[in-house]
Amino acid sequence: MKVINDLKVKLKLKRARQVLIAVVVIALLVVLFGGKSADEAVTSNSKPQVSLTTPLEYSGGQSLSLIGTVRAFSEAEITSEKSGRVVGVNVSLGQWVSAGQVIGSLENAAERASVLQAEGVYDAAVAAAAQSGVGVDEAKNGLVSAQNNAVATFQSSYNTTNGIVRNNIDTFFSDPDARVPGLRIDGKGMTTSLNAERVAYQTLLPEWQAKSNTISITANLEAELAYAKTQVQRTTAFVDSFLTLFANQDNGSRYSDAELQGFVTSFTALRANLIGVESNINAALTSLQSAKDGVRRAELAAQGGTTSAADAQVKQALGALRAAQANLSKTIFRTPISGTVNSLSIRQGDFINSFVPVAIVANNNALEIVTYVSDSERSLIAEGDEVLVEGAYTGVVTHISPAVNANTGKTEVRIATENTDIVNGDTVRVTKQASKAQAATKTIIVPLSAVKFDIADGFVFVVEDGRLVERPVMLGIVRGGSVEITNGLAATDAFVKDARGLKADIEVEITN
């Protein structure tokens, strides 16, 4: 009985302790959570904590760290272009040299002789070209003579034709300058045509006379002579009509047989005279064309023409001279830039082969840093950006290659710096912190940890009313630990930095 009572007492004491502990816990929860219930307190502590950022802040916080090599802005490696024995070394290691200065030379007696010979051939070609100008002058004088002859022939053809019409043909018309000239001989059916032809000459002869009075060697003489030839042939046909008419006169004609015979003889002579005039015109045309051809041939052979044989010979000789000079220059080592001789690999008496390094000349006072960036880093740097060299000195990006280097698979970047503590050949670290201003103008980039991937693209989480909401986005190129967002997210939109382990529509607590 006593044992049972002892157990009851112990149970009561145990319950009292448990109740006391519960009261203490509830009191603590009330103090910590402002009077909330224990269930509410537990629920509050179970909210996931998330950190938010924006693409602008994320890109602005990215940094770039690169390894670069220091080199001179201007540096030239001089190599041999042909083999031979070194006969002279004109500089020493560390010496300052000017652009074009001779570093050294190979044995070149044969090359100098070739240059001398080529100079003689060139001088002879120049002299021959000068003589060719005389032939051009002679040809041009011949052309002027042919042109003057053509002018005289044109004028003579008018005078002869006009005399035949006025002094011979017009004797058979009663009024040659009238609207109806009036044929004075039996026309035998040709009266109308002969009258009409004479009326045509009332215009033809004054027009021809005007041309004859104004023609000169500057005129289109071929066209003018062709015009004169046409008029002479027309007058010859006019004379032939009268010869036919004289032969067909009968006994009732107003002219006797003796007179008609005299007319035939006279007009036959006129016809021969006109044919002679036409021959003179043809000769003048031929002479004119021949003179022009002569000038063209002379100009082709002479110096200074558009296509000149003399000039071509001069150019050939000059080309041979330049080739000889080029061969000679291959035996002489010259520096293309001004700078310090940083390397000198030849000594007098050495025999060297082609394409062997001879010397390196560089401007050691003007240095630049050459480094390479990957595709993911390319968007973080631009020409004009300021960078930090070795964590202590500033530099400026002066050039970014527009293409990827085939050897490195990266893009070359050149950086200028005024730091005097670095020397040509040093390897240095270059760092750059991306600014928000730069980030705002570039492609939107987010960390890969912020993206939940779907079959095609994916989504990021944004917080609305304390809950996670999916924001679908279109993904672009993955750049290291980041990914481009081509659509669905603006530069200033806040998103959850790390979406791992999170689900949509749960309540979260924002830590930042």
Could you explain how this protein is built, in words?
- The protein is of the alpha+beta class and 512 residues long.
- It is built from ten helices and 23 strands.
- A six-stranded antiparallel beta barrel has the order 3-12-15-14-13-16.
Kindly, what is the distance between the CA atoms of the first and last residues, rounded to a whole number of angstroms? 67 Å
| Category by helix and strand content | alpha+beta
Q: How many beta-strand runs?
A: 23
Oligomer: single chain
Strand content: 15-25%
The biggest beta sheet is recorded as:
6 strands, antiparallel, barrel
Shape: elongated
Helical run tally? 10
Question: How do the strands and helices of this protein lay out in sequence?
Answer:
Blueprint: H1 2-32, H2 38-45, E1 49-50, E2 52-53, H3 55-60, E3 63-72, E4 75-79, E5 84-89, E6 96-97, E7 102-106, H4 109-167, H5 191-214, H6 221-247, H7 257-301, H8 309-329, E8 332-334, E9 339-344, E10 351-352, E11 357-362, E12 367-373, H9 375-378, E13 386-389, E14 393-404, E15 411-416, E16 427-433, H10 436-440, E17 445-447, E18 452-453, E19 458-464, E20 467-479, E21 482-487, E22 495-496, E23 509-510
Structure keywords:
6-stranded antiparallel β-barrel; single chain; 512 residues; 5-stranded antiparallel sheet; alpha+beta; 23 strands
Question: How do you describe this structure in short?
Answer:
The chain is of the alpha+beta class. It is built from ten helices and 23 strands.
